[in-house]
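User: Could you check the structure of this?
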Amino acid sequence: MKAGFKNTYTIVFTLVILMLLSGSCMKKEVPVLETWDVLLVTITSAVSGGTVIDEGSSAVVSQGVCWSTEPEPTVQDFKTSEMAGQTQFSSSLKGLKGGTKYYVRAYAVNDIGIGYGNEVTFTTL
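Assistant: Sure, the predicted structure tokens are below.
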């Protein structure tokens, strides 16, 4: 084998390996959100929403708000589901109990997982 061909082969092989490694080391991120303050609070309902600040590593496929009477609500608690693809969205929280403190967070789902916004609290009338 000629020295020039061997060097070219080594360089190409090294570049292919580096490309494969860099692709597999890409950061995989969930969406980043901001939760809106809760408005229009009644005995049994309220309105909140959120802003998708960054979709993360892939497009958002589902979004809404989740709530609970315990801190750090997740989509396993109560949740709404709004049309994906909108940077800002609002949601109606229904079926609430009067005189109860609730914790709310916006959420968005992409192929990597679920991102949650900051937690806000409110108390129904």
